[in-house]
Amino acid sequence: MTRVAVYGNGSWGTAYAMVLADAGCEVTLWGRRSELAEAINTTGTNPDYLPGVRLPAGIRATTDPAEAARDAEFTVLSVPSQTLRENLTRWAPLLPGSTVLVSLMKGVELGTAKRMSEVIEEVAGAERERVAVLSGPNLAKEIASRRPAASVVACRDETVARRLQKICHTAYFRPYTNTDVVGCELGGAVKNVIALAVGIADGMRLGDNAKASLITRGLAETTRLGLAMGADAHTFAGLAGMGDLVATCSSPLSRNHTFGTNLGRGMTLEETIAVTDQTAEGVKSCVSVLDLARRHDVEMPLTETVVGIVHRGIHPLVALKELMSRSAKAEHG
Ligand SMILES: NC(=O)C1=CN([C@@H]2O[C@H](COP(=O)(O)OP(=O)(O)OC[C@H]3O[C@@H](n4cnc5c(N)ncnc54)[C@H](OP(=O)(O)O)[C@@H]3O)[C@@H](O)[C@H]2O)C=CC1
Ligand SMILES: O=C(CO)COP(=O)(O)O
């Protein structure tokens, strides 16, 4: 039986732990709060993040990072992106030397503009061939109710990607392999920023043409950044690109989309943060994605607009006017 440690017992860490357990793995699920770990072990549910969902028997919760790490063939990381460095610094010495580190996170680190796999390599001292990412249209609540979804497992070493694919393939979860780690991570991080933009537009009742235009131009700027960073263009037409973008921008289950909708309806940033109880990665990562765009000299007008609305107090109507009056240009180029 494959032993897997999952660090982070929020919505996605728990739902993916369910996938792994359903696929036959023995999973230890780490979380920082003892009352939640105890509730998971005693009730067989995660009342804080997936209330009412019965967890499979193969999951055991703990608050002890060493217990989670013991003999783990795979180490799955699912905490908010901006907390990864600090957390992994504590966990890294506990991890087995050969464990494969898997990122579920869809963010870019503020300040360094590093992707999560880069932070993992740096902090855990892991070679690239031992670091993988999972990304795709995977709204946690749908997966936890075992509704069908596909996803991408990416690793520079294809044999490692295949090993990961094997341990999380179930009747309702279909992972594809890819070796384009950069593209998969960027697809996941930037779609959260575009979902904020679409949410704002939905909150302003701008209509379906506006939504489709934002999704399409959002994919164009994601691809532009990806190509500048060495990613494969095909990745952005795939599950970790278009797939995740469409799911996140159209679902009321998306925290980023919901966050944007609240802003578009006229809530202030403070009010929106106050009603958001889960991680909406795009709120911070829009700043680091824009940082990446500048470092690579890539134009990302939608990301820039989101940063303006969310962090610089620009009114959505003013931002819309600015976006629509940008100089006319060719669609491709
Ligand atoms: N939810 C989804 O549908 C999907 C999410 N993702 C990505 O997965 C990642 C995790 O998100 P998700 O599980 O949804 O987030 P949630 O908000 O549901 O859960 C966050 C988890 O991280 C923990 N946490 C928060 N802050 C810290 C900290 N400083 N140190 C340690 N643990 C902390 C929380 O613990 P506590 O309860 O104690 O605060 C909780 O267990 C994100 O990058 C997200 O983009 C990817 C695909 C799907
Ligand atoms: O990444 C996700 C779906 O693939 C979840 O999106 P949110 O973080 O916006 O809820």
Automatic annotation (TrEMBL):
<keyword id="KW-0547">Nucleotide-binding</keyword>
<feature type="binding site">
    <location>
        <position position="255"/>
    </location>
    <ligand>
        <name>sn-glycerol 3-phosphate</name>
    </ligand>
</feature>
<protein>
    <recommendedName>
        <fullName>Glycerol-3-phosphate dehydrogenase [NAD(P)+]</fullName>
        <ecNumber>1.1.1.94</ecNumber>
    </recommendedName>
</protein>
<feature type="active site" description="Proton acceptor">
    <location>
        <position position="191"/>
    </location>
</feature>
<feature type="binding site">
    <location>
        <position position="136"/>
    </location>
    <ligand>
        <name>sn-glycerol 3-phosphate</name>
    </ligand>
</feature>
<feature type="binding site">
    <location>
        <position position="106"/>
    </location>
    <ligand>
        <name>NADPH</name>
    </ligand>
</feature>
<feature type="binding site">
    <location>
        <position position="106"/>
    </location>
    <ligand>
        <name>sn-glycerol 3-phosphate</name>
    </ligand>
</feature>
<keyword id="KW-0443">Lipid metabolism</keyword>
<dbReference type="Pfam" id="PF07479">
    <property type="entry name" value="NAD_Gly3P_dh_C"/>
</dbReference>
<keyword id="KW-0560">Oxidoreductase</keyword>
<dbReference type="InterPro" id="IPR011128">
    <property type="entry name" value="G3P_DH_NAD-dep_N"/>
</dbReference>
<keyword id="KW-0521">NADP</keyword>
<feature type="binding site">
    <location>
        <position position="49"/>
    </location>
    <ligand>
        <name>NADPH</name>
    </ligand>
</feature>
<dbReference type="InterPro" id="IPR036291">
    <property type="entry name" value="NAD(P)-bd_dom_sf"/>
</dbReference>
<feature type="binding site">
    <location>
        <position position="140"/>
    </location>
    <ligand>
        <name>NADPH</name>
    </ligand>
</feature>
<dbReference type="InterPro" id="IPR013328">
    <property type="entry name" value="6PGD_dom2"/>
</dbReference>
<feature type="binding site">
    <location>
        <position position="256"/>
    </location>
    <ligand>
        <name>sn-glycerol 3-phosphate</name>
    </ligand>
</feature>
<feature type="binding site">
    <location>
        <position position="12"/>
    </location>
    <ligand>
        <name>NADPH</name>
    </ligand>
</feature>
<feature type="binding site">
    <location>
        <position position="32"/>
    </location>
    <ligand>
        <name>NADPH</name>
    </ligand>
</feature>
<feature type="binding site">
    <location>
        <position position="254"/>
    </location>
    <ligand>
        <name>sn-glycerol 3-phosphate</name>
    </ligand>
</feature>
<feature type="binding site">
    <location>
        <position position="281"/>
    </location>
    <ligand>
        <name>NADPH</name>
    </ligand>
</feature>
<keyword id="KW-0963">Cytoplasm</keyword>
<dbReference type="InterPro" id="IPR006168">
    <property type="entry name" value="G3P_DH_NAD-dep"/>
</dbReference>
<feature type="binding site">
    <location>
        <position position="11"/>
    </location>
    <ligand>
        <name>NADPH</name>
    </ligand>
</feature>
<feature type="binding site">
    <location>
        <position position="255"/>
    </location>
    <ligand>
        <name>NADPH</name>
    </ligand>
</feature>
<keyword id="KW-0444">Lipid biosynthesis</keyword>
<feature type="binding site">
    <location>
        <position position="191"/>
    </location>
    <ligand>
        <name>sn-glycerol 3-phosphate</name>
    </ligand>
</feature>
<dbReference type="Pfam" id="PF01210">
    <property type="entry name" value="NAD_Gly3P_dh_N"/>
</dbReference>
<keyword id="KW-0520">NAD</keyword>
<keyword id="KW-1208">Phospholipid metabolism</keyword>
<feature type="binding site">
    <location>
        <position position="244"/>
    </location>
    <ligand>
        <name>sn-glycerol 3-phosphate</name>
    </ligand>
</feature>
<comment type="pathway">
    <text>Membrane lipid metabolism; glycerophospholipid metabolism.</text>
</comment>
<feature type="domain" description="Glycerol-3-phosphate dehydrogenase NAD-dependent C-terminal">
    <location>
        <begin position="180"/>
        <end position="319"/>
    </location>
</feature>
<keyword id="KW-0594">Phospholipid biosynthesis</keyword>
<dbReference type="InterPro" id="IPR006109">
    <property type="entry name" value="G3P_DH_NAD-dep_C"/>
</dbReference>
<dbReference type="InterPro" id="IPR008927">
    <property type="entry name" value="6-PGluconate_DH-like_C_sf"/>
</dbReference>
<comment type="function">
    <text>Catalyzes the reduction of the glycolytic intermediate dihydroxyacetone phosphate (DHAP) to sn-glycerol 3-phosphate (G3P), the key precursor for phospholipid synthesis.</text>
</comment>
<feature type="binding site">
    <location>
        <position position="33"/>
    </location>
    <ligand>
        <name>NADPH</name>
    </ligand>
</feature>
<feature type="domain" description="Glycerol-3-phosphate dehydrogenase NAD-dependent N-terminal">
    <location>
        <begin position="4"/>
        <end position="160"/>
    </location>
</feature>
<comment type="similarity">
    <text>Belongs to the NAD-dependent glycerol-3-phosphate dehydrogenase family.</text>
</comment>
